[in-house]
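Recap slide: NADH-FMN oxidoreductase RutF, flavin reductase (DIM6/NTAB) family, sequence and predicted structure.
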Amino acid sequence: MFYRPQDGHPLPHNPFNAIVTPRPIGWISTRDADGNDNLAPYSFFNGVAYTPPQVMFASTGTKADVDGTKDSMANIRETGVFCVNIVEYAMRDAMNASSATLPHGADEFGHAGIEKASCDQINCARVATAPASLECRMTQMVKIEGENNFVVFGEVVGVHMRDDCIKDGRFDVTTYQPLSRLGYRDYARVTDVFEIIRPDD
């Protein structure tokens, strides 16, 4: 089948999110100018550069009590920093609980029963037990097509890795099984890996 997104599609549910999969989940922690912590998962997330290391995530919605966006974006506009926490399979329920729509200024860490720790390089909280956390300084916030669509780019200025996830000098994803977003209400976890050697290596 073929369809043009501007015309809609004949399926019961939008297939776009099921096509662009799996997507890593950026569990974004921020702090507003008044010191209130926020935590929310975003599945439009990825790394985008090695040197310096940089990441991006996109927000595609809005809240009634925030000006034209969501809490994460509003906080980053105020402070210029954020932290990306990696979601392991064991924390899937806590991650889901942190996605609840709460009043602006509410603390999702407390709401979802998640232990927090301080970041080292930025004024922000992080998920204390996450397999890894990336402390970021915003480099760009870009408005893209769509009424409430924004992309944030950040330079990674600090990296936390849980010691049990480092095996033989490598960060071993099978130790914690990263959670990824699929389409609809579906998720997956990484349990097996294999190696492919590039022709030029």
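Residues 15-189 form a domain with the Pnp Oxidase; Chain A fold (CATH 2.30.110.10).
The longest helix spans residues 71-79.
(End of recap.)
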